[in-house]
Amino acid sequence: xxxxxxxxxxxxxxxxxxxxxxxxxxxxxxxxxxxxxxxxxxxxxxxxxxxxxxxxxxxxxxxxxxxxxxxxxxxxxxxxxxxxxxxxxxxxxxxxxxxxxxxxxxxxxxxxxxxxxxxxxxxxxxxxxxxxxxxxxxxxxxxxxxxxxxxxxxxxxxxxxxxxxxxxx
Length: 169
Description:
Low-confidence stretches: 1-6
Distance between the termini: 42 Å
Oligomer: single chain
Shape: elongated
Radius of gyration: 17 Å
């Protein structure tokens, strides 16, 4: 199993209803942009000619989709680390303080208004796109808004038993 996982091509993240899904090409002639597109469509229930099945047990994938010789996976874990960026993000409005990180093909930011303590605003954007305002965090940001590795890279404190939500203040 380890050799198969080593041969994967990690393509990036697809935003889904439950957060961000890590996508990889297992084999076949599928470019990464195509793999991300397929998984985004599958997430919306549009399978086209792709046959998909769920992983079970200790499987490295959550979902495996096939079409002829091509195979695309939604991975159980994100195989890349976020990079915390030192420059201030060019967000849609002015903030007093902000943290920013890049993970694969997405960039994330938390920004605080001047004088605001724990109530940050969350933002996300795909590479080359505009910032999406994910709304105020009310002192808590969860992994369906910003992936766990990013929240950990910012050294935020987990506030739930399994680390699903983190304190922003």
